[in-house]
Amino acid sequence: DGGITQSPKYLFRKEGQNVTLSCEQNLNHDAMYWYRQDPGQGLRLIYYSQIVNDFQKGDIAEGYSVSREKKESFPLTVTSAQKNPTAFYLCASNSPPYGYTFGSGTRLTVV
Amino acid sequence: GDSVTQMEGPVTLSEEAFLTINCTYTATGYPSLFWYVQYPGEGLQLLLKATKADDKGSNKGFEATYRKETTSFHLEKGSVQVSDSAVYFCALEKGNRDDKIIFGKGTRLHILP
Known about the structure:
The complex is a heterodimer of chains A (111) and B (113).
Chain A: E1 4-7, E2 10-13, E3 19-25, E4 31-37, E5 43-51, E6 54-57, E7 64-66, E8 76-78, E9 87-94, E10 100-102, E11 106-110
Parallel strand pairs in A: 2-11
Antiparallel strand pairs in A: 1-3, 3-8, 4-5, 4-9, 5-6, 7-8, 9-10, 9-11
Chain B: E1 3-6, E2 11-14, E3 19-21, E4 23-26, E5 32-38, E6 44-50, E7 56-59, E8 62-65, E9 75-77, E10 86-93, E11 102-103, E12 107-112
Parallel strand pairs in B: 2-12
Antiparallel strand pairs in B: 1-4, 3-9, 5-6, 5-10, 7-8, 8-9, 10-11, 10-12
């Protein structure tokens, strides 16, 4: 079955540590996205990529970095510069005009 | 710019009640419209969609009709169940390669047994 796989499901980060969230898709979609969701809140766009080797900042890119070396993969690194990283992170891919397909999310907690 | 506005929650209903969650949009052109559902601790799932005016999307007993004259895409269900408790997001997409989906802020639905 085609879909998006996010890993890990739960991730704990120590202060000052960088962590990387994985997102893999086998849908052959060109566009991929990372969103952050805080409790009781909507979705905020972190980064997106519409083609391999290219990506753009979203609304809240500070403290995050991404790469898009392969069509199937769009990992997100939460750097130590992100002062409040505890949140639920969602990856999505898209093939307009059929709507986004989302992964099941990674819950990141600072310990 | 383009935007989606949906009713604020939480919405609390008893089981078997009729559900309406309002959604209106502002967009140029002819966007596609979507409803997504998010169950606790999970990602978003596409619930239904409509790609042109007067289209009705439907799935799992939920329906929404694309009303261009009122720029609306209200979500309805005739008889809700406890298992429908979730957060519902209305969204639009212009369909161009470089366009991103625009989401509403979400509406939390609680169904009481």
